[in-house]
């Protein structure tokens, strides 16, 4: 394994903790990424320093204290924010998601033991030495996702780990270790106790994975127990789609099921509109002709139309739309060379203005008149 190139700002955080007589290690995803030979997207630090001690050590630096109850202090370094969290043991879990209380500890091993999977339960010191009490490195080499400790109990504590496991599998192309997979199946009903927002966020992560089709097919029963609206017989469709949650979720939804699921998952209005648009429009293939493309852009909005083309792999129509956008063609009411005020100048009022603008857009879209102020006003006067 190569020596990890720890960014200087992150290394300085570890050093400061050590100079203060405390331990500091990189932990979790960044160590996993390093062992796998990829560059981490962020760095988390675990420390024996208590939260108040951490605050004292980084007094004078820019810190964010929002996670303090859980022992987390975010230190803003030149290499980005670094979350510094006190070694922690999680107490009992009565809601299958949140520990009833957290206990700080001075033992790195105890902190690693509370983590979900062996590959996420490794720590690395400033010198590059790996602390790996649960065999995370070996599991990574074998491509296995394995719970730390007894899988049934770990999923009972926090059922979201079930979806995290599937997300990592879909992302990394790893297999679930046999006992971990069996426990997922046994505990799948507990997923229904998890906040829908959390389920949605893990589902998005899973859908973005290169191996999402395989994992969804293989763990169909687990997924369906909490997301019965997904039509997993459509999994194969994902392979051709870019890894964007809205595109991929739309592919797995039957028209009738879509609104209900989106409501239940409490998705944003924007995400909802996008998915519903794709589900509604996906059977309508736009011919690769300029006017047809303009019509569809005017009806759906250019951005939506581009997304739909990507969903349908309608490359030719997409290129035409992009060319239209480049040449700043008029594709919406907002692009018209006249606005409501101009029409008031012609004596139009209220709803008549909206209707007139619609009419003008239609004429321009059909390329009957150019998008020029004179021409548009002239048309209305007739
Ligand atoms: P990613 O690359 O997706 O960020 P990550 O492993 O960093 O992966 P995070 O959600 O950022 O995932 O969590 C950081 C670490 O915290 C994990 O590596 C794991 O050690 C621990 N962790 C996170 N969520 C849980 C959980 N639900 N149960 C146990 N440990 C968890
Ligand atoms: Mg992370």
Question: Could you explain how this protein is built, in words?
Answer:
This protein is α+β, with helices and mostly antiparallel strands and 382 residues long. Among the domains are: 134 residues, Beta Polymerase, domain 2 (2-Layer Sandwich); 48 residues, no CATH class; 51 residues, no CATH class. The chain contains 20 helices and eleven strands. The strands form three sheets. Strands 3-4-5-2-1-8-9 form a seven-stranded mixed beta sheet. A two-stranded antiparallel ribbon has the order 6-7. The protein has a two-stranded parallel ribbon with strand order 10-11. Helix 12 crosses helix 14, helix 15 crosses helix 16 and helix 16 packs antiparallel against helix 17. The longest helix is centred in the last third of the chain and has 15 residues. The N and C termini lie far apart (78 Å). The structure holds adenosine-5'-triphosphate and magnesium ion. The site of magnesium ion has 2 residues, from loops.
From the structure above, extract its key features.
Beta Polymerase, domain 2; two-stranded antiparallel ribbon; 10% strand; elongated; binds adenosine-5'-triphosphate; binds magnesium ion
- The general outline is elongated
CATH class descriptor name of the domain at 1-134: Alpha Beta
- What CATH architecture of the domain at 1-134 would you give? 2-Layer Sandwich
How is the main sheet built?
7 strands, mixed
What is the CATH superfamily of the domain at 1-134?
A: Beta Polymerase, domain 2
**Overall mean pLDDT:** 95
Q: Strand order, biggest sheet?
A: 3-4-5-2-1-8-9
Bound molecules: adenosine-5'-triphosphate, magnesium ion
Rg (CA only): 27 Å
